[in-house]
Each structure stands twice: as structure tokens, then as C-alpha cells.
UniProtKB/TrEMBL annotation:
GO terms of molecular function: 2 iron, 2 sulfur cluster binding; metal ion binding
Keyword terms of this UniProt record: 2Fe-2S, Acetylation, Iron, Iron-sulfur, Metal-binding, Phosphoprotein, Repeat
PANTHER family in the cross-refs: FERREDOXIN-RELATED, RIESKE DOMAIN-CONTAINING PROTEIN-LIKE
Protein name: Rieske domain-containing protein
InterPro entries documented for this protein: Rieske_2Fe-2S, Rieske_2Fe-2S_sf, Sol_Rieske_ferrdox_dom
Annotated organism of origin: Sphaeramia orbicularis
Residue ranges occupied by any Rieske domain in the UniProt entry: 18-111
Stretches for region Disordered: 1-18
Gene expressing this chain: LOC115425406
């Protein structure tokens, strides 16, 4: 009989999720960085009522995304890496850049293009004011993975 089993509680997050902090604290801080599951440095940020999570170091050269500005480009919210101003969409982790329409036509006309997903984005869930991250376990390599090794972790921790 299954009568002794208690029904799943809606306040219990799935096992694969990792506690980040209280939502009110994250909202107040705006950004929080955390080593998740002992293996991944993640940035969780709050912008315009939404929570986002992504690898903490920029896919280009490991820049500290927690210090990046949030701006909209081509109607898409991006974090702008403080190191070389690469633009990364918050929701998908796509690298955006401005391409020139036709270099022989002046004035130059530019338009936004995507390099595809470059930054690993993680899933954020909220249960009763607690914020959790589920690591994105897509096995396909994403460029920001390069900056998730022990080497970068210790380098950056030493400052
Ligand atoms: Fe982020 Fe270069 S490290 S733009």
C-alpha cells in the first residue's frame, strides 16, 4: 500500500536544484555569485522583476559579468561584459554583435547579429521566496565552459 507515503509537497524543490538565497536579498543586491554544487560559478541577477542565471565568467576571456551593465540591443536584454563590452542575451546566452550591411556603402549601415549561444544559462526557480538554480546540463560544449575550471576559479579567487 502507498498510504504511508506523504503527497509531494509543493514547497520542496526538486533534488537537482541548488539553493542560492532568499529572493528579497537577491533583489536587494541585484546580483549574487555562487559556487553551485561545488563545481560551477554562477551569477544570479535580478532585473525588471525577472531572475536570470548564467555562468559567472564571460565566454570571451573570463570577464566578471557580475559587474556588467544590463542594456537592450535589438529588443533583447543583454548583459554587457565590463572587460571588452561583449553583449550576451540574459535569457539565452547568445553573443550579439553589430555587423555592417555593406562596407562599400556610406554611411555604413549596421544591424545586430547573433553568434549563437556562447554563455551557459541556468534555470532559476523560486519556491516560497527561496531562489534555486538548476544547472544546465546540456552535454554540448558552450564557450563559457572554458572558464569553469579549477584554474580560473583559483586565479580569480586570489584576485
Ligand atoms: Fe568579456 Fe572580453 S572577457 S568581453
Amino acid at each position: 500500500s502507498s498510504s504511508s507515503l506523504s503527497p509531494p509537497s509543493s514547497s520542496t524543490p526538486p533534488l537537482s536544484t541548488h539553493f542560492i538565497g532568499r529572493k528579497e536579498d537577491i533583489v536587494k543586491a541585484g546580483r549574487v555569485t555562487k559556487l553551485v554544487n561545488g563545481c560551477r560559478d554562477v551569477l544570479v541577477l535580478h532585473h525588471d522583476g525577472q531572475l536570470y542565471a548564467m555562468d559567472m565568467r564571460c565566454y570571451h576571456a573570463g570577464g566578471a559579468l557580475e559587474h556588467g551593465d544590463i542594456e537592450e540591443f535589438n529588443g533583447r536584454l543583454c548583459i554587457v561584459c565590463p572587460w571588452h563590452k561583449y553583449k550576451i542575451t540574459l535569457a539565452e546566452g547568445e553573443g550579439l554583435y553589430q555587423a555592417v550591411d555593406n562596407p562599400t556603402v556610406k554611411p555604413l549601415r549596421t544591424y545586430w547579429r547573433s553568434k549563437g549561444v556562447k554563455q551557459r544559462i541556468h534555470k532559476v526557480t523560486e519556491v516560497n521566496g527561496d531562489v534555486y538554480v538548476t544547472l544546465n546540463d546540456l552535454s554540448e560544449a558552450i564557450e563559457s565552459d572554458n572558464y569553469q575550471t579549477e584554474k580560473y576559479r583559483s586565479v580569480f579567487l586570489k584576485g
